[in-house]
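> example.struct
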C-alpha cells in the first residue's frame, strides 16, 4: 500500500486493531474538544455547550451507530445486522471505515462467521434425527456425581449468577434419586427436571474438555431440556423457576457461541419477570425472607445477562434503570458472594449508562456527550476503587487469584474501554 495513502488513516488503523476500545476511541479521533473544569468553577455556571465545547448544530456522530444500519451476509448466506455496540460486529465496522478511507486501494475481506460456528448444536428444528428419547437413569449421572456437578456450578458461577435455589434444588435432587427413577419425571416435576439437565450440562462443561467433533460438552442434556421446555402457559406454573431455567440455558448457549438463541431465551425470561413484577420490590402475600432473597437474586441475574447480551448483539436495552425498584440481595449465607454479586450488578449498570450515552439511535451525540462521558468515567473509577478494597487480586505468592475476582476485573476493564 502506498505510504501516502496509509499516513492519513493510520490513527484509525491503530484504533481498529484495539477491538475493545470501540466507540469512545473512534469518536475521540473524529472530534476535538477542550474541557476545563477549573475555568468552569471560576466562571460560575455555564451551558452544556460551553462546558463541552460542542455546539448543538455540530454534526458530531458516532460512526459505529449512524443510520441507516448496515447488514452483511455471513458464511451461510444469511443477512446479519451489525449492531452498534456489538463486539462481534465491531471489526466489520472498523474495516468498513478503513475501506471507505482508502477507497480504491485493495483491502482484505473479513469472513463473517455464522452464529454458532464455534460449536455445533443439533437443534430439534433442524435435526434430521427423530426427537430425543426420554432419558433413562442409566443415561444420567449418579447421585454422587450429580451433587459434584451441582457444587461445580456453585463454585464457578455462584458468586456471579443465581441459577437455582440451592436448598430446593438439592431436596428435589435427593427425592428424584430416592425413588429409583427409570424414566423422566411426570409433568408436575417437568420444570425442575429441565433445570436439573441444564445444571448437569453446565457442570460438565466447566470441568470436562470439549470433544473433537465440535459438539459442546453437555449438549445432550441441553438438547433434551430444550425439547421439554413448556409453552407460554407452562412457564407461569412456577415463574421464578422458569426465569432461573431460561437464565441457565441462555448462559450455556452464549458460552458456546449461539448468541442469537441466548439473546432470545433471555428475552423470554425478561418478559416473564416483568409480567410478574420481578423488577419491583415485593411485599405482602406471606413473602418470607428466603423467598425475597431468591426473588432479588433471580431478577438481578436476569438483569445482568439481558444487559450484557443486548450489548453483545448491538440491541437496545429493554428496560431502563429508573423503572427498577427491587433491592440488591442482602447477605444470606456468604458475605463475600453478595459483595461479588453486587459489584457485578454495578458494573452492568455502568455498561448500560455508557451504551445509553454513546450508542444513540441516530448516532448523533448530544451537546452533553462529553459531560455524560466524564460522569460515566467517574462512576467507573469509583467502582475500581471498590474493587481494590474488596477483591483479592494479589499476584504475589503461590495462592491462586479468586476466579470471580479476576472475572469481574476483566469485566471492569471491558466496561471502561467502551
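> example.seq
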Amino acid at each position: 500500500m502506498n505510504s501516502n495513502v496509509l499516513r492519513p488513516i493510520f490513527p484509525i488503523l491503530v484504533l481498529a486493531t484495539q477491538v475493545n476500545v470501540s466507540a469512545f476511541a473512534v469518536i475521540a479521533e473524529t472530534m476535538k474538544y477542550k474541557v476545563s473544569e477549573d475555568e468552569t468553577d471560576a466562571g460560575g455556571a455555564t451551558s452544556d455547550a460551553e462546558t463541552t465545547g460542542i455546539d448543538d448544530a455540530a454534526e458530531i456522530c458516532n460512526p459505529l451507530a449512524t443510520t441507516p444500519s448496515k447488514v452483511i451476509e455471513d458464511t451461510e448466506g444469511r443477512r446479519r445486522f451489525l449492531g452498534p455496540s456489538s463486539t462481534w460486529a465491531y471489526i466489520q465496522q472498523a474495516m468498513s471505515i478503513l475501506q471507505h478511507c482508502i477507497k480504491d486501494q485493495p483491502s482484505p475481506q473479513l469472513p463473517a462467521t455464522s452464529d454458532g460456528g464455534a460449536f455445533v448444536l443439533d437443534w430439534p428444528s433442524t435435526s434430521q434425527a427423530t426427537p430425543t428419547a426420554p432419558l433413562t437413569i442409566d443415561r444420567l449421572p449418579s447421585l454422587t456425581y450429580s451433587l459434584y456437578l451441582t457444587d461445580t456450578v456453585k463454585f464457578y458461577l455462584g458468586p456471579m449468577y443465581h441459577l437455582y435455589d440451592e436448598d430446593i434444588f438439592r431436596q428435589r435432587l435427593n427425592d428424584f434419586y430416592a425413588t429409583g427413577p427409570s424414566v423422566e419425571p411426570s409433568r408436575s416435576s417437568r420444570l425442575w427436571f429441565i433445570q436439573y439437565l441444564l445444571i448437569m450440562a453446565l457442570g460438565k462443561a466447566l470441568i470436562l474438555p470439549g470433544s473433537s467433533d465440535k459438539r459442546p460438552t453437555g449438549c445432550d442434556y441441553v438438547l433434551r431440556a430444550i425439547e421439554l421446555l413448556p409453552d407460554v402457559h407452562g412457564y407461569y406454573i412456577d415463574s421464578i423457576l422458569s426465569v432461573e431455567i431460561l437464565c441457565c440455558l441462555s448462559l450455556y448457549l452464549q458460552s458456546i457461541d449461539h448468541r442469537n438463541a441466548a439473546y432470545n431465551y433471555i428475552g423470554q425470561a425478561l418478559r416473564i419477570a416483568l409480567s410478574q413484577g420481578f423488577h419491583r420490590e415485593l411485599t405482602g402475600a406471606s413473602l418470607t425472607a428466603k423467598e425475597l432473597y431468591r426473588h432479588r437474586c433471580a431478577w438481578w441475574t436476569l438483569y445482568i445477562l439481558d444487559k450484557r447480551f443486548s450489548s453483545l448483539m448491538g440491541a437496545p436495552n429493554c428496560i431502563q434503570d429508573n423503572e427498577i425498584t427491587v433491592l440488591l440481595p442482602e447477605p444470606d449465607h456468604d458475605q463475600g458472594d453478595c459483595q461479588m454479586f453486587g459489584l457485578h450488578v454495578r458494573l452492568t449498570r455502568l455498561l448500560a449508562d455508557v451504551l445509553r450515552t454513546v450508542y444513540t439511535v441516530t448516532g448523533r451525540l448530544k451537546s452533553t456527550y462529553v459531560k455524560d462521558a466524564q460522569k460515566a468515567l467517574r462512576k467507573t473509577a469509583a467502582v475500581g476503587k471498590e474493587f481494590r478494597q474488596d477483591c483479592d487480586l494479589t499476584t504475589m505468592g503461590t495462592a491462586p487469584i479468586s476466579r470471580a475476582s479476576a472475572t469481574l476485573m476483566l469485566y471492569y476493564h471491558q466496561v471502561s474501554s467502551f
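> remarks
Residues 122 and 129 are 9 Å apart (CA to CA).
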